[in-house]
């Protein structure tokens, strides 16, 4: 999986790791789920795409 070239504070990365462990997910799955939920909550993404494909709207 390609990684974005952005600086993310370690406490955020640690939070994703903790979320993944708590919900028995891989880190990639946790990143995808949390990013998708955040984009939906902010009204940026409507959530119609349910798979992990690279399809953009």
**Range of helix content:** 40-55%
Instruction: Indicate the mean pLDDT.
Output: 83
The Rg value, from CA coordinates, equals 12 Å
Characterize the largest beta sheet: strand count, sense, and whether it forms a barrel.
Answer: none
Order of helices and strands: HH
Question: What are its keywords?
Answer:
single chain; mainly alpha; 2 helices; 0% strand; globular; 57 residues
What would you say this structure looks like, in words?
Helix content is 49%, strand content 0%. It is an all-alpha fold. Helix 1 (10-22) crosses helix 2 (27-41). The longest helix has 15 residues, at 27-41.
Itemize the secondary structure elements and their pairings.
Blueprint: H1 10-22, H2 27-41
In short:
With 57 residues, this protein is an all-alpha fold.
């Amino acid at each position: 999986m390609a990684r974005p070239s952005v600086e993310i504070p370690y406490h955020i990365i640690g939070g994703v790791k903790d979320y993944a462990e708590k919900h028995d997910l891989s880190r990639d799955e946790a990143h995808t789920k949390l990013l998708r939920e955040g984009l939906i909550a902010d009204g940026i993404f409507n959530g119609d795409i349910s798979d992990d494909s690279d399809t953009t709207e």
